[in-house]
């Protein structure tokens, strides 16, 4: 997920003009902030409340426990069917006559565009800055477990989707909750589906939209100089509207090009740093494994590393939130389980690969200050995080780490931030749209209404700094996980039936490859 703490806005890599902008915007929006915070504060506090006696948010434990349950229940499906998932993405089993709107690869790219981004850049830096390199170990573990959550929800998304005569489809948690509960004779499915849809719309307009526009404007203004945010907002709104007005096919056509490009751009830069410093890679992995169980002197010890790693993974890949199931529901297939296999690749790419690359670059860059005598990391004056060269954190720490090997990387980072923000907005516009049409009905008028509202909020997000609004939308996104995972526990036996049926037909040769 691309959501990061609002305090990170002041630490954007080249953002000398950002604090002044934020301060000015906060002054303009102070009354809105105060009023909105009074009404939404209790809800936000509830969702992100820590477990008693710890700093570990209960919502993160909720996600990690569910991922562990699904991993065991499906007998480590993420390992057993990894190779088959790759074959599906390549299109080896794709029948051109299957119902749906996008290919396996396009569905994967669309869902990835909603998760890969600022969380991988700034969020990982926060996790490593507080929990040390050891946080990376727990982040990888949580990412691997999260693959099973994505598998479960995306299989159900396809199984219970609505297919229309014109070839379009609608799917996601709101559909499999209402239909699945009714099919099994369980009460409350309709109410839970409505609740999920409301949270999804709020999350799409806030965290999936306004915050992205705000971050993009902050990064751009930090490089070119301060200017009114509404200008950025209008430009983004125009481009986003041009893409989303064409529906999921248009979104998929864009994301299948943007996601690989931005992924290669970022991972490529990371690989350059790692190759230049190849002699330190072994040491960096040693820091990761040692820090995972000892903490190497970081705040909170190994528990602090564990908390930060699990938190970053959960907040980055959205496994269990249910958002990805909406994108994957549009895939062309008659076998729901195949999209479950494809979707389990997302946490691997997002968390295990990209987040780990960021963590490795930060670790070997020398930005984290180490005590030469003890080998432990030195804490900052507040004792809340590791001391860094130049006292950087968040995006600024990642930028400084890359700049240590590539002096011009802050400019690459600016491009990445803009691309990540753009891709998040178009993906979350689709998530919000499907929740909207579930509540208010299908049809071009209903869809156009939401798309216009969505684009208006892009301008608002770029021009303002509505802290409590973003806090609330973040909370709404994770409230989606409360509803979604509750439903998954009741419906996961249906997924296992699908898995057993498909597996037996695959082994018997009934499931065949298609020549393309």
Helix and strand layout, with pairings?
Blueprint (H helix, E strand, L loop, with lengths): L17 H11 L1 H18 L10 H16 L3 H4 L1 H9 L13 H10 L4 H14 L2 H26 L2 E2 L5 E2 L2 H11 L5 H36 L4 H16 L2 H30 L4 H14 L6 H17 L5 H6 L7 H8 L1 H20 L29 H10 L5 H32 L3 H20 L3 H42 L8
Helix pairs in contact: 2-21, 3-8, 3-14, 3-21, 5-16, 6-12, 7-14, 7-17, 7-18, 8-13, 8-14, 8-16, 8-17, 8-21, 9-10, 9-21, 10-11, 10-19, 10-20, 10-21, 11-19, 11-20, 12-17, 12-19, 13-14, 17-18, 19-20
Tell me the fraction of residues in β-strands, as a range: under 5%
Q: Give the rounded overall mean pLDDT.
A: 83
**Approximately how much helix is present in the residues?**
over 70%
Number of strands: 2
Strand order of the largest sheet: 1-2
Q: What Rg do the Cα atoms give?
A: 22 Å
Global morphology: globular
Helix vs. strand class: mainly alpha
The low-confidence runs, each spanning 5 or more residues with pLDDT under 50, are 2-29
Sequence of secondary-structure elements = HHHHHHHHEEHHHHHHHHHHHHH
What composes the largest sheet?
2 strands, antiparallel
Intertermini distance: 34 Å
Helix tally? 21
